[in-house]
Amino acid sequence: MHRAAALPISIAALLRACSTAGRAMAASTPFLPPPRELLRPLAVPYRLLLGPGPSNVSPRVRAAGGQQILGHMHPEVLQAMDEIKAGIQYAFQTRNRLTLAISGTGHCAMEAALLNLLEGSDTVLVGTNGIWGQRAADIAGRLGAKVHELLKPPGEYFTLRDIQEGLAQHKPSLLFITHGESSTGVLQPLEGLGELCHRQGCLLLVDAVASLGGAPILMDQQGIDVLYTGSQKVLSAPPGSSPISFSERAREKMLRRKTKPPSFYLDMGCLASYWGCDGEPRMYHHTVPISSIFCLREALAMLVELGLESSWKQHRAACTRLYQGLRDLGLELFVKEEAARLPTVTTVRVPEGYNWKDITTFLMDKHNIEISGGLGPTAGKVLRIGLMGHNATQDNVDLLLQALRDALQHCQHSRL
Predict the structure, then answer these.
(1) Nearest residue to 243 via CA among 119, 128, 98
(2) pLDDT digit string (tens) for 249-267?
């Protein structure tokens, strides 16, 4: 056998090889140092959240969120999902099969409802008397729908005659309306709307993010076709899960679609299969936020234990006490008609000579209490006070009124 001749390596080739290896090592070396702020422990202060949301989470719901993480198809998680469906059916007062929780906030549920129901150049009529009607009109427009807005000034609600005239004029396939308009503090009456819509061949879509559990709403009895809410308001769970339900009318409209919904993540056909709403074996769609699922399950269990009627009475009693206390302080409620006031979110006119931001900052800095300024059409005009779920207590009302009295005394020189 002949031994292979050794191939001489030039100095230049060796240097090139070393240079290439050096560049490869340099490319895999981090160039940003560890951020110092992440080397410190997380510090979260306690605050009493009496704004329009989120509300404080009860210790029981917080404990549920600290449970061991399980797989998203484990039987224990699927059982929790089934229990959530039953809890939503109770909270909504519906027997709808297509009932589940969207993995996302209330905005996500609004978008899911609209993009599954609207196709092509469908016509939608949006009742706009605050920011949530504005948002729904924006989303529907982006989907290519023909959008018509029925307008009311902030602080007012729609009458049956208003709705009837809008339906007759525009002949929509869908009416969107907000039950609890948290930007203005208005509670929209729902009686008769479903029947009116169905006579016109129109579906009724209701946003109950700020009202569900705090004010009466009966999905099947009131003829509501799509209803959704958020986890972080009256349910007092962490934000990120949104209960939603579709009537058989709405489900049939979705089944008649000629095109797929424009979002895979929010496709109700896929979500129904994952949540076991169609009677077929479950099909994986996405990984639900497991900790949020446990929190939502426990929050719904607490509502079931309390009972809907007791929850409604609790919120009504808390807001009634608040109204009287605000009047005693010389403050003016934004919504004139008491029956039209949303019991979960109260709007108060910013008193003359005060800056709303000074008041909210003082409450936060001196009393660890959050209330909010206006939003959308009420920005700069009102203060918004939330009494929702875990926070809707008379003790919290009294704490807030004392803090507001203090703020009005100390912020009085902040003249506009």
Answers:
(1) 98
(2) 999 999 999 999 999 999 9
- What's the predicted TM-score (pTM) here? 0.92
**What are the CA-CA distances from residue 157 to residues 133, 185, 215, 226, 316 (Å)?**
12, 10, 15, 20, 19
Helix axes 75-92, 290-306, angle to 10 degrees: 40
Q: Which of 134, 140, 149, 135 is nearest to 119 (CA)?
A: 140
Nearest to 129 by CA among 349, 337, 386, 378: 378
Q: What tokens does 100 get?
A: 């589940």
User: 412 pLDDT exceeds 80?
Assistant: no
In this structure, the number of other CB atoms found within 10 A of the CB of residue 33 comes to 6
Contacts with 371 (C-beta within 8 Å, 6 or more apart), sequence order: 50, 51, 359, 360, 363, 383, 384, 385, 386, 400
3-state secondary structure 165-201: HHHHHHCCCEEEEECEECCCCEECCCCCHHHHHHHCC
- Asked if 114 contacts 143 with a C-beta cutoff of 8 angstroms, the reply is yes
Among 47, 45, 49, smallest CA distance to 233 is for: 49
Q: What is the per-residue pLDDT across 79-105, written as a single tens digit (0 to 9) for each? A: 999 999 999 999 999 999 999 999 999
Rounded Cα distance, 271 and 257, in Å: 16
Spatial neighbors of 11 by CB under 8 A, at least 6 apart, are none
Cβ atoms of residues 49 and 370 within 8 Å: yes
Non-local CB neighbours of 66 within 8 Å, separated by 6+ positions: 291
Element (DSSP H or E) covering residue 49: strand 48-49
Residues with Cβ < 8 Å from 357, sequence gap 6 or more?
373
38 token code pair: 């992440």
How far is it, in rounded angstroms, from Cα 59 to Cα 298?
A: 11
Its sign, for the CA torsion 83, 81, 235, 192, is: negative
d(CA 375, CA 234): 20
Closest to 271 in 3D by CA, of 378, 116, 409: 116
